[in-house]
């Protein structure tokens, strides 16, 4: 039987389509047309070994390998990085959880948008600078973890991921976030520490479900008044920034349990701090405070107040302790 180039290309196109039914058809045609599928089989066996490290791929028929792979719900890919294997992984349409941890990864294919069942995506410890806009098609995502990469931006389409509940973007090169992040009303936890933010992304102030925000180790100079919109938030961590003052609107964040402001350059605290009657942990060490407003005495739930490394007089500390007799005030 003579075989023309077009028939062979069609078979290979089916085999590498990533669609289970198309692959099965490709295998059938390859057998009928006597096409060598060894290169494709080698890729499948290599992928099979990566995701089933305890199984001998050579003892599992190719068709069964393919069937098993396309029923996978979770895959974690670590070094050594193999772009061919990753491309095959991005066609496993039943995946619910995908983790990629590879120091050699520099880009993610647009094919990632086909993983529409994905609920958890973790890409960490890579050279990745950007995420393709097709990530916005992963509308079932609940958990998005992108720490320890080289990200400089996120696509606007991240605003489509309205089912997200947790986002981790720490240890990247981010300076801003798209305004569309304001659409993510279900996000409870947002990690942004160790980036290069100079301004607080205004979109965050509309993430009404936010409970925990960590913005440590950036270069924020101020907080917008709109921060007061975050009335459900209970933990705010702003360690090692460049804050000189806090907006009065911080007093609207009445669900706050923990507020950490270590290592800023605060010279004063607004009297509205006294509205935070649920506050139990307040850390103000390593700032430039000489006093606190008398309204601090309203914080009856406060258990720990840390004032170490501020230019406060002993008289001021004694007065603060008299205002908060049930609170541990640490100064020395």
UniProtKB/TrEMBL annotation:
Disease resistance R13L4/SHOC-2-like LRR domain sequence ranges: 81-169, 213-316
Cellular component, GO annotation: cytoplasm
Keyword set, alphabetical order: Leucine-rich repeat, Repeat
Gene3D superfamilies to which the protein is assigned, alphabetical: Ribonuclease Inhibitor (3.80.10.10)
Family annotation (SUPFAM superfamilies): L domain-like
Domain of life: Bacteria
InterPro entries xref list: Leu-rich_rpt, Leu-rich_rpt_typical-subtyp, LRR_dom_sf, LRR_domain-containing, LRR_R13L4/SHOC2-like
PROSITE patterns: LRR
Keyword Iron: no
SMART domains linked: LRR_TYP
Listed PANTHER family: LEUCINE-RICH REPEAT-CONTAINING PROTEIN, PTHR48051
Protein name: Leucine-rich repeat domain-containing protein
Organism: Xanthocytophaga agilis
Organismal lineage: Bacteria, Pseudomonadati, Bacteroidota, Cytophagia, Cytophagales
